[in-house]
User: What shape does this take?
Amino acid sequence: MITRIVKVKVLPEHHEVFVNYMSTFLTQAKEFKNNHHADCFVDLDEEFHYHIYTIWKTEGALNKFRKSEISIEFKNNLSGWCKSPYSAWTVENIFN
Assistant: This one.
């Protein structure tokens, strides 16, 4: 399994629209072929910081998603809603 982790710091004035959008985005990500999970967590220590996780069957499945309209729209929205560039990691589960 491949996990994509994206950390964002949302500008306070965009917080509400971000939270509302994430519900739609997560539903779309979960419906994408070979997605096993999608979720968004708020950081307990840093206000307006979020961690978005998606879990994929293979790296190829993640790459197809990253090229999709859903992902492109997500990245475009983040660039307008975030204080600074977001951070992202792709990791592989080594214990099944």
The chain has three helices and four strands. Strands lie at 2-9, 35-42, 49-56, 87-92. The mean pLDDT is 94. The chain has one domain: 2-92.
